[in-house]
């Protein structure tokens, strides 16, 4: 399909924004979502300026009514849904396990895990009926490597990878693919918040064999590939894009 319909959650900054711009270059019709209306409308305008048909729809992935409305409005606007990128996520509150609470757990898992589950539920509702579609979830290198002080974030990304594999097995019979892209350290505001200081950030990046953090555009390129017909025999996979961090 020359002009696929693409839905991106958590699209207003970082990897999500870079992914929207990458799909715009590919000629996609795009729906971007997030919780900040001003930023969302500004992004839609930027995408239109890049030549794409684009809409912003307000949605908080922690709430099923928002997610259902997001998917329904996407289909109402463009008639179908070909690609969904479930990027909405949070780093939560980093710190030792002994300092975590039920509230900090919920704050992390409601966005990172429940949000992905609800998004896939309603995306698959449409894609399975179509008999086609591609979903790309956002995991992390920490989804298969533990990290001190990041227990809840790490656990949430383990959960995303499990959801991805289970959904891929369920959706394959309908011609729908489900994969995840797992970035390493990427130059985003989330990385700055997660590390908390320039020294801690430098220490994290020093562990990357390529000796640098990745760029959001590099992750966007991997997402566009995973969603495309060039990856038509790839499903149920966790695609690491991390500068070699998981090679050893």
UniProtKB/TrEMBL annotation:
Identify one Pfam family in the record: adh_short_C2
Q: Which UniProt keywords apply?
A: NAD, Oxidoreductase
Q: Does the keyword Cell cycle apply?
A: no
Q: Which CDD domains match?
A: SDR_c
Query: Which residue ranges does the record assign to the Ketoreductase domain?
Result: 4-186
A GO MF term: oxidoreductase activity
Give the source's domain of life in one word. Bacteria
Record-stated family: Belongs to the short-chain dehydrogenases/reductases (SDR) family.
The protein depicted here goes by the name NAD(P)-dependent dehydrogenase, short-chain alcohol dehydrogenase family
The scientific name of the source species is Bradyrhizobium canariense
